[in-house]
Design goal:
- It is a single chain.
- This protein folds into two domains: about 80 residues, Rna Polymerase Sigma Factor, Chain: A (Orthogonal Bundle); about 80 residues, Winged helix-like DNA-binding domain superfamily/Winged helix DNA-binding domain (Arc Repressor Mutant, subunit A), CATH 1.10.10.
- It is built from nine helices and no strands.
- It is an all-alpha fold.
- The radius of gyration is 18 Å and the shape is globular.
């Protein structure tokens, strides 16, 4: 990987292609998780790789390449949403509330669901919930990092994560009820 990174820093086209081939599937799936639709995901993906190529000279430790790239792609996703729409705090969400047993294990709920189906359910979350859920649960950002990037408090980040998990749980349970009666 060090050779590919060194080649990218020199502008070598083959090294750029090798980097792209190695990380494109991973970064594209990241883009789909953040985007509302395929064209938005593709925009994030293209902008992300442009930023990677433009800024790879700033990468000092090759062992953090994947994490560094993920941060770039997440930032690009967030920039797209800032550009397309103003993100407001989510405060008017109707959840099923007490009709769902709070003791249901998330592992039981998320097992037996296809990845594509789960991605679609995540894409339907309100913007801030979706972004915080992806950043925390999938990308591994801390609530402090999320709060700094989204310019919200740590408590608001935690609240959005809680609300996203609850909404996902409710939507998956509803889907299973509809499928199995």
């Amino acid at each position: 990987m060090k050779k590919i990174i060194a080649g990218c820093k020199k502008g070598n086209a083959k090294s750029k292609k090798d980097l792209y081939d190695r990380f494109a599937p991973l970064m594209l799936s990241l883009c789909y998780r953040y985007a509302k639709n395929k064209p938005d995901a593709e925009d994030i993906f293209q902008e992300g790789f442009l930023k990677v190529y433009e800024n790879i000279s700033q990468l000092r430790k090759p062992e953090v390449l994947e994490w560094w790239m993920k941060k770039i792609f997440v930032n690009e996703a967030f920039k797209l949403y800032k550009k397309k729409t103003r993100l407001y705090l989510v405060d008017d969400i109707t959840l099923l509330g007490n009709s769902i047993n709070d003791n249901i294990s998330y592992n039981n709920i998320f097992s037996n669901i296809e990845t594509d189906e789960l991605t679609r359910i995540i894409q339907n979350l309100p913007d801030r919930m979706r972004i915080v859920f992806n950043m925390y649960s999938i990308e591994g950002f801390s609530h402090k990092e999320i709060a700094d990037m989204l310019e919200i408090s740590v408590g608001t980040s935690k609240s959005h994560l809680h609300d996203a998990r609850k909404k996902l749980q409710d939507n998956i349970i509803i889907k299973k009820i509809n499928l199995y009666g």
